[in-house]
């Protein structure tokens, strides 16, 4: 590490620590509570310059990535504005692998890379690797495991991309156990162990694309046990650009490479739902982490209520003890981030504001770096909750917008009104006109879709308006007693050209 780099990172630590504890102390003074939590100084009190590399965030693209983004044409019997099936395909045969799993010790970074490489190569095509770029400050590569159906398309029979879920672990280098949980999850998925044992895992495999980034902060963890000095120094690394254009105190500060790699990767392969993992507490933390530019407000709506809290509650309810957490400000093992401690520029707020998707922050182990012997029960406590959350990646409207005449995919601006507010999203012509709007059970959503053809701006299309509500009940989602198809409404939206409406509709 160069002297300049050391100075820069120490400066980050100083800045982040100061701002974080200023907010924590303000909270403690106002509430009389003692903070007991994973310190998350991934705050951004500065105008962080975000250089998007979304067009090429990987060191090397893989077939899985390409398949995920391809466009499958409509089937000949696709009906206008038709409600399709739940998009759940027939369970697929499970692969086998010779790669063994052992809880005996934590993986060093080289051991992790070797393990994943061997796991993928023996997964019979179930898994592949992607490499978010750039590497860490110390030059360690950040790796992602991609899991999908064996010998299957990444897309559903309806032509919609599969629902996708992304896990991001080990944001803070000294919170190590969650990294091992994600490696265990990767092994269970890629080896076929989980699918062989449970039909719900098979259904997930057939219907959902899962990406796992076991560590986004390898410098803070390698070699095990964690290099605590390095872990502390890198606490400032996982900062994300402020989600909105706030007037921020201080000067300008560039993001560190780890944050750049993850934000670029998530922009490139936008997950329908995602989560990042921590240790130091036991709670499911949901957006928003910051209600204003200074962290003064301690509660605020997102415009998607009650969905963020519902996702956190679903995880907590599937965990054997998380939902027992009711110490203020926790409610049944959940908390809105800002109510716990405000974080400016957090990952989950960035995903919500910039990518327009939901992301929650899971604190899974009160001891940040527990002995390896405690990892098996930790896995048992979380694996069902992990499955539950991944299943909910499909909860909402999944749709594609196409030209009614040519069936070609279109882009669109989509406005969605619910009792909680109005949210916008966009349909992506390069992904077959696909858009996804997460929805909460029992809430009526009013959609207004304005299609356009990015390759031909002279064409104009009629606006498409409709309303949708999921019939599944909240209690059923919390309990996990749903069928996956109940969580999804899929539609193909036919866009009629404004200047040819009469002839097309005859
Ligand atoms: Zn943490």
From TrEMBL:
Residues in Peptidase M14 domain copies: 105-393
UniProt GO BP: peptide metabolic process; protein processing
Cited InterPro entries: Peptidase_M14 (IPR000834), Peptidase_M14_domain (IPR050753)
Signal peptide start and end residues: 1-28
Pfam families per record: Peptidase_M14 (PF00246)
A GO MF term: metallocarboxypeptidase activity
Keyword vocabulary terms for this entry: Signal
PROSITE patterns xref list: PEPTIDASE_M14 (PS52035)
Source superkingdom: Eukaryota
Family affiliation: Belongs to the peptidase M14 family.
PANTHER family: CARBOXYPEPTIDASE D, B, PROTEASE M14 CARBOXYPEPTIDASE
Name of the protein this chain belongs to: Peptidase M14 domain-containing protein
